[in-house]
Design a protein that fits this description.
This protein is an alpha/beta fold and 224 residues long. It has one domain (3-220): Rossmann fold (3-Layer(aba) Sandwich). It is 32% helix and 27% strand. It has six helices and ten strands. A six-stranded mixed β-sheet has the order 6-7-8-3-9-10, with helices on both faces. Strands 2-1-4-5 form a four-stranded antiparallel β-sheet. The longest helix has 18 residues, at 176-193. The radius of gyration is 17 Å and the shape is globular.
Amino acid sequence: MAAIVEGIGLTKRFGIGDAAVTAIDSVDIRIEERELVMIVGDSGCGKTTLISLLGCILTPDAGELRIDGDMIDPVNHDLSSVRRDKIGFVFQMFHLLPYLTALENVMVAMDIAKTKEAEAEKRAIELLTRVGLSERLHHRPAQLSGGEKQRVSFTRALANRPKIIFADEPTANLDSRQSDNLMNLIEELRQEHQTTIAIVTHHEGLRENADRIIHLKDGKIIPS
């Protein structure tokens, strides 16, 4: 299969001088089409930094990044356009806009991509219905459970038909039943939308869902 995301020698440091910390240290990584990949490791090992580099939220201090076959040059690329057109993110704390309804939270992602309002609303309703939220379209985040908020987050990530979705600890705020339900939903959505998904997780029970597990320690990928 072709690689959707490929990093070569990715390095990211924070701080300067003697206080500098290398969060990601010369990492080579390849994620292929339609894979479900789990990125695991102890707290502080660099997992979130790694997916932030791969998802063009952070820029590397060294190394190369390709997304969908294109070399990403932070100087010559509009990274916001890359994120908008090719990448979906699901954050641990949901990052839903509190004053918008579930429907509006999904539509806003398509508004950024300049999708016509009628088309955006139709797709948002279809996606939210698919994840079992047809009765919650007009509820604001404060009126939703943790599991419902996370489903809205995944729906928003899917809205612009990304090549890859990065999810940072998507089950951290869910109980075991909600976690199982979410992982079942993720697998179904991956198959339906032919989307690659990379998940950062501490949840041991999720590993059986993965096609591949990437172990990170002290900013480096280590053999499984």
